[in-house]
Amino acid sequence: MPLGEEKNGACDRSIYVNNPHLDSMTDDILYHFNLGTSTHDLPAMFGDVKFVCVGGSPWRMKSFIEYIAKELGLSEPNADYPNICAGTDRYAMYKVGPVLSVSHGMGIPSISIMLHELIKLLYHARCTDVTVVRIGTSGGIGLKPGTVVVTKQSVDSVFQPRLEQIILGKPVVRSTELDGELAEELLQCSKDLAEFETVIGNTMCTLDFYEGQARLDGAFCSYSEEDKQSYLAEAYAAGVRNIEMESSVFAAMCKLSNLRAAVVCVALLHRLKGDQLTSSHDVLNSYQQRPQVLVGHYIKKKLNASKKS
Amino acid sequence: MPLGEEKNGACDRSIYVNNPHLDSMTDDILYHFNLGTSTHDLPAMFGDVKFVCVGGSPWRMKSFIEYIAKELGLSEPNADYPNICAGTDRYAMYKVGPVLSVSHGMGIPSISIMLHELIKLLYHARCTDVTVVRIGTSGGIGLKPGTVVVTKQSVDSVFQPRLEQIILGKPVVRSTELDGELAEELLQCSKDLAEFETVIGNTMCTLDFYEGQARLDGAFCSYSEEDKQSYLAEAYAAGVRNIEMESSVFAAMCKLSNLRAAVVCVALLHRLKGDQLTSSHDVLNSYQQRPQVLVGHYIKKKLNASKKS
What we know:
EC number (chains A, B): 2.4.2.3
Order of helices and strands of chain A: EEEEHEHEEHEEEEHEHEHEH
Number of domains of chain A: 1
Oligomer: homodimer
CATH architecture of chain A: 3-Layer(aba) Sandwich
Catalytic activity (chains A, B): uridine + phosphate = alpha-D-ribose 1-phosphate + uracil
GO biological process, one term (chains A, B): uridine catabolic process
Structural class of chain A: alpha/beta
Pfam family, one (chains A, B): PNP_UDP_1
Number of strands of chain A: 14
Largest interface: A-B, 65 and 65 residues
Low-confidence stretches of chain A: 1-11
CATH class of chain A: Alpha Beta
Number of helices of chain A: 7
Shape of chain A: globular
CATH topology of chain A: Rossmann fold
Family (chains A, B): Belongs to the PNP/UDP phosphorylase family.
């Protein structure tokens, strides 16, 4: 049920929810955000949102909102950005102007709870033309540490662009296609910036960080270094350039909701050369800022273009 | 490779890691805890740990350590319990005496990263005879809200006691058996306390909170109220009394590591009657304390018994 609105004679890109039951609910509690339709004026709080950035760590999402506020000239001296979900420790949420920044924890289940509630929030707030970008960290394959990967396709452990979800005990397969045009625009932003390397590649999404990603340093490991190398080489041959744990359900849910979506992750290490994150704290920190800088540049460019038009 | 030690003539129950590669590593960085074998003296910091309580929310795990410190007479006036993982926001960890309290976020992937690093931590610290309990929240089936469920078997979406993990692209099935004796001891603790109802039952573990648990209030829903009721009735008939998102991998990994393990979750609502958490904040909060109270009583009882013997 799209909430289509006519504005300037053109139909906006609307947020879809695909749930006929929502209409019969008198109010909707977004439990893990500690927000709700009867306790909060969601259109007033969020109606102007055009960009949503999501990432695993609450600290990183707070630092992103401070960064983007400065970039957009919306920061005030000594400004503090309160956590909109302060009543819960499940997720953290920050907003400045048209940009919302939300943490999602680690793994498919954690981001999927957040996205269900985010999509309903954007729907209740009657947002239109929203772009959502996941900014995160990942392990790279065949890339110099610090390289940023914009995801072409999110693939599963056998390198297929699909997500199998279980609904009422039965498997349902969903497409993990992302917006190709948006990925190219982000790549162009990296060229504009010329600060670090960015590539477009496939991203493998796993349910586990250790055995699921062929690491040799978990509590359990039943395979050899050779098995690991050959699995990661197969992944590389299938176009996989990095591995993380949220992109598949992010892509699938954004596609179902008509949200323009991209995944931008920095590769913290080269997995063919090792499994442990041995780089210094400062180096890892500087790598983690790259997706923020890239997406910050994109948002600024888009907002400037819309001012001019 | 068990680290068996002889003490008082009896062989302790040791922590297993099942990874031959660990021995050849000069140091081991527990990245998501911000701890490591070359930067921290893990035996000195954690060698005395006998009980580990894990739960989703960092706030709850901090409140648990404050509660257990009081219960065990280990709290000092104005004592603050510093977060041992203060350098990261992925997990929070607190310790008092022989009790460790660790948060794990939401979902199987999030708790599995934590458990890989926790098991390695206990192994590096040469801990023995460790009991691990997950204290959490859940949706109940056929139970009065506030009832505590001690898990008999953690089952999947078709009610089987197994976890399928993907390793090098291939499915591996692991048992989700928990310690039956420990479950009975916990049930007895609830009888000692006589403060709230506790049952032993099966726990369904899902990868999704909305569609994966047959909720009607997610952003997407392709099934009817009748479909939902009939799926949950099937679950009830298979012995399922509550639904949560971490127990299967928790059970599987503890079993592989020789850790005595239990899952103790309070049912916040009766899922046959609704999906939204409409109870007041105070009521939900008091429900969430019940697993803490139960496990606190168990730990006290065990420590008193070992003092006497």
